[in-house]
Amino acid sequence: MVRGASLVVRPDELVALIGSNGSGKTTLLRGLLGFLPPLAGRVERRPDLRIGYVPQRETLDPLYPLSAYQVARTGSWRDLPCWRLAGARERTRTRAALEACQAGDFASRRYSELSGGQRQRVLLARALATDPELLLLDEPTAGIDPEAERGILDLLRKLRETQGLSIWMVTHHVHALAGRADRTLVVSEGRVRLDAAA
Amino acid sequence: MSELFSADFLFRNAILGGLGVALLCSLLGIYLVLRRLVLIGVALPQASAAGIAAVFWLTGHGHAGGADTHLIALAASLGATFTALGLLVAGQRRARSPAEWGVGALFAISSAATILFVAINPKGDIEMAGLLRGELLAITDGDLRLVAGVLLAVGSLFFLFRRDLLLTSFDPEFSRTLGREPVRYDLLLYLLIGGGIALGVMMTGPLVVFGFLVLPALAALRVAPGLVAAFCISAAVAALSFLGGFWISYQADLPAGPACVAVAGACWAASSFLMRLRVRRGAAALLLLLAALGLTQGCASRFEAAAQRAASPLPRGTLPESLLPHPIAVLPFSNATGQSLTIPQGFLDDVARAMGSQTAQRRYTVPDALQQRAAFELERRGYQVVVVPVEQKRTLLAGEPLAAAGAGAPAGFTGPVLAGKLRRFTLTGSGLLLVQLDLALIDSQSQDVLWSGAAQRPVPIPSALTWQEILLDAGAPIFADAFGNR
């Protein structure tokens, strides 16, 4: 449970939510997503706010026979009614998202056969394909090697700069964030202990 | 191929109905396997079987009964499946325990309930075997229409909601951020799975349903390069397995359901073997599909030949050709065996009869079934027939000659009548049916005997277990013997 959190999501900002395991970071993120309604207080957001979400990689089942492209394509289905076939617009948006995440080279490979870093890029591309204004990421660098981790963080920074996205990410890899996050929130024992601009 | 769909072909309904159920299960099975709900695929058919067993015990129906039986079985199957599904979903939402616990408990309870309901059913073990194997041969035209409708509905819903089902199955949280509530699509999927299982169990039994829910999907997911390909391969494997298995069972006189499941198992083993050989997925899928298409075509052509044979009229044997233009009234057969030969009825009907209820069903006996079969066999030999209901005919007295039955022709009927007297109907422990059936064609006006014949040869029926199966298997040889077809 998270208590006493008072936060504002601003445009064009890369925010890192850091803290140890069980501190309440993911709970806070899920509250922002609307998955966990607040027991007290409120979450205010524009009804038409477009959120792109990148969950932890482990939650996705590798049994599904999907290529990286097919996984990323699901993000382009946000406004697609069930009776309409996906067309050129969805394909273009998916390709662009994969290219932006430097995942175009392995787009045809099966998602379950990719490395941790590659999968993360595909999930990021899927979130970008939703055409988001706010990007929320849950532990995007967990379980990947330091080089891939730096690559992901640089990519997020670049996306913030080129696409004007507001990006909030949960992590406990404080050292890798140096010079990349605009703002850092430290969560501990269910409370936001520090909210500091870089 | 058109002969396969001819109403004259004895196995038409069994093949088309079973094929429909196999295809239905193969589509549903993909999501069942991907969502790791395979155990539900075992437990729900068993719950459905328990529901059918309970209602059959109460109403005294059997798997190979008429149209009302199938309606009752479908209602029981649907009721039991959705009750079980509702309990599982509710339990999963409320409890913190793993889902398998509830599924395991449901399977154990359903299996025990099925056996107990069968044990207190007058049909006993015979009904148990019928329930587990399903009664493909008892599929009616109405059932066929129902399977086609459900298959069309499931296929359409799968296509219409293909994106939503994939999104909510693969990543439910992400789908929520896109405005797709997983609960809604979970319900849709459960509705499709529950409906498909209930319908499938009613027609083919829990073993076939579980087998076709799991094995074609497993084989397809091994080799498929994508999800659409997985659906196509699963359907192709199911079609192959069903046709191939049915053909094997037809040739080797084996139960059809288990034979079909065994072939599906072989397909799964083949797909695993191909992947072990490190054959590329696309190539492995192509090999499996080619084998499926080739074997399906081979089996279909074999059935076509059988259908052509079935559609051509049988030789008349010793029956008089002069009667071909006249309709023959087939009278109820009399029973001179000294046994009641009653086909067991249900608990509620027995109670109603014991209470003297007028609405209780009349006892249905083996001679009644043979009368129906005689009419069918005469039609196969080109004669026109009228079946005379039991209520319209006086009973022959013991020792009265068969010719006296001619006086029992329906009022106003002036043509020939077929009378029959069953003298022996004994099933031996070695699977032989000892029959003595005397038949006579009598002129209803002059009381002259126009033709007489008798069936006396023992009939082997090694795999028949239910009364319906015994009569179905033995019917053709009994009348071939009586009508002089050697």
Describe the structure.
- The complex is a heterodimer of chains A (198) and B (486).
- Chain A is α/β, with parallel strands linked by helices.
- Chain A has helices spanning 25-33, 68-73, 88-100, 116-128, 146-163; strands spanning 14-18, 51-54, 134-138, 166-171, 183-188, 191-197.
- In chain A, strand 5 and strand 6 (191-197) form a beta hairpin.
- In chain A, helix 3 (88-100) packs across helix 4.
- Chain A is globular and about 45 Å long.
- The model of chain A has no long low-confidence stretch (mean pLDDT 84).
- Chain B is an alpha/beta fold.
- Chain B folds into 2 domains: 2-310, Orthogonal Bundle (ABC transporter involved in vitamin B12 uptake, BtuC); 321-483, Rossmann fold (3-Layer(aba) Sandwich).
- In chain B, strand 5 and strand 6 (449-455) form a beta hairpin.
- The two termini of chain B are 30 Å apart.
Low-confidence stretches of chain A: none
What's the CATH architecture of the largest domain in chain B? Orthogonal Bundle
Q: If helices are DSSP runs of H or I spanning 4 or more residues, what is the number of helices of chain A?
A: 5
Task: Describe the global form of chain B.
Answer: elongated
Specify Rg of chain A, calculated over alpha carbons: 17 Å
Greatest contact between two chains: A-B, 27 and 25 residues
Number of strands of chain B: 7
Order of helices and strands of chain A: EHEHHHEHEEE
The percentage of residues in β strands of chain B lies in: 5-15%
In the CATH hierarchy, what is the superfamily of the largest domain in chain B? ABC transporter involved in vitamin B12 uptake, BtuC
| Count of runs of 4 or more consecutive helical residues of chain B | 16
Mean pLDDT of chain B: 81
Helical residues, percent of chain B: 55-70%
What's the CATH C level of the largest domain in chain B? Mainly Alpha
